[in-house]
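Structure (tokenized):
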């Protein structure tokens, strides 16, 4: 059994190492819980949190705002109204004093740590600055799965460290600033989305503080994007209006709107995860019927569409290290199926902007 567990851990570590340098975090848009402890008096336990043994709101020299101070053997959880959705993100800022206990955080089936012990049931990450030990350790329940020994926690003692967690169905990813340190594709079960926790480790100097603030928990919008990718993989093609651009002149390169990035990142992530996935991208400008013709020169429209498709290719190949030969640029003025649907719909006269067709090769 131990040998089998070691093989599984090695496999997961391999996946983690391959993706460690890609900052593909996409912040959830719909806030579920947010706390900066602004309303909590200094010295009091923050009102929207549960704890197994204490903690207090403090002002921290050299750092703006208020912070939740915890110590060793202390676990805290936010008061969430219900289990987190299968696509969500968790973010917080962390300050660890030199000599403080290791910091442990993650997900647990326990809703309230004042009534249960997270030690036996959790998906966890440990941050520590101890000679001879890896800086980042991660695991499930009571078993370590792997570590990220190359991350330099010593350089962050006393400094703010931004922690980002991304949960997408069974996948659990953790980023420290912009470094991905954990990527476990099959670890998350629904029960572990009951709550998020932060804790101080055991058997250490409990007088040195661990501080966190700027907590933001939000639901992601990956469901629709993932369905589009599923359609691409199963049906061989998909057409979307989710990639849009700001207004620009013919002389300037196209610029994505912020709303476009999540879908582009989902597509890029899919290509990075599956090296056999190659695609062709077609693009087409669409305008209401009343605006077609006249000043809308077809050559200009085709040139604009081609530039936008090339920008999509450049974004994915650069951010996700996808080979340029894996993305082909196709016809920019023919997306027949979608346009037939658009023209026959009630909304056909109102459609404007950019259609992107993605074909699996």
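Design, position by position:
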């Amino acid at each position: 059994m131990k040998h089998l567990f070691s093989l599984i851990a090695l496999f997961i570590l391999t996946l983690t190492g391959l993706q460690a340098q890609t900052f593909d975090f996409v912040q959830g848009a719909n806030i579920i819980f947010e706390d900066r402890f602004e309303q909590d008096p200094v010295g009091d336990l923050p009102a929207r949190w549960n704890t197994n043994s204490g903690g207090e709101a403090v002002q921290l020299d050299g750092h703006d705002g208020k912070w939740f101070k915890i110590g060793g053997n202390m676990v805290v959880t936010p008061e969430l109204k219900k289990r987190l959705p299968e696509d969500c993100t968790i973010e917080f800022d962390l300050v660890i004093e030199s000599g403080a206990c290791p910091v442990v955080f993650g997900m647990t089936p326990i809703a309230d740590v004042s009534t249960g012990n997270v030690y036996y049931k959790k998906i966890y990450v440990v941050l520590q600055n101890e000679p001879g030990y890896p800086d980042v350790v991660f695991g499930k329940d009571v078993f370590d799965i792997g570590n990220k020994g190359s991350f330099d926690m010593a350089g962050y003692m006393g400094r703010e460290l931004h922690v980002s967690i991304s949960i997408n169905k069974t996948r659990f990813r953790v980023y420290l600033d912009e470094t991905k340190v954990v990527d476990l594709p099959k670890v998350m079960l629904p029960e572990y989305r009951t709550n998020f926790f932060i804790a101080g480790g055991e058997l250490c100097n409990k007088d040195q503080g661990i501080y966190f603030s700027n907590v933001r928990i939000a639901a992601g919008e990956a469901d629709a994007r993932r369905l589009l990718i599923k359609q691409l993989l199963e049906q061989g093609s998909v057409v979307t209006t989710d990639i849009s651009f700001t207004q620009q002149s013919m002389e300037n390169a196209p610029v994505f709107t912020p709303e476009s990035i999540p879908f582009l990142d989902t597509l890029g992530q899919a290509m990075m995860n599956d090296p056999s996935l190659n695609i062709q991208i077609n693009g087409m400008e669409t305008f209401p019927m009343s605006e077609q013709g006249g000043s809308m020169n077809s050559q200009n429209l085709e040139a604009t569409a081609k530039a936008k498709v090339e920008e999509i290719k450049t974004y994915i190949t650069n951010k996700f290290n996808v080979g340029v030969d894996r993305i082909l640029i196709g016809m920019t003025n023919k997306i027949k199926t979608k346009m037939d649907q658009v023209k026959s719909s009630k909304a056909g006269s109102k459609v404007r902007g950019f259609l992107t067709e993605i074909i699996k090769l």
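Reviewer-requested clarification: The helical segments are 2-19, 222-235, 261-273, 298-319, 336-344. The longest strand covers residues 87-96.
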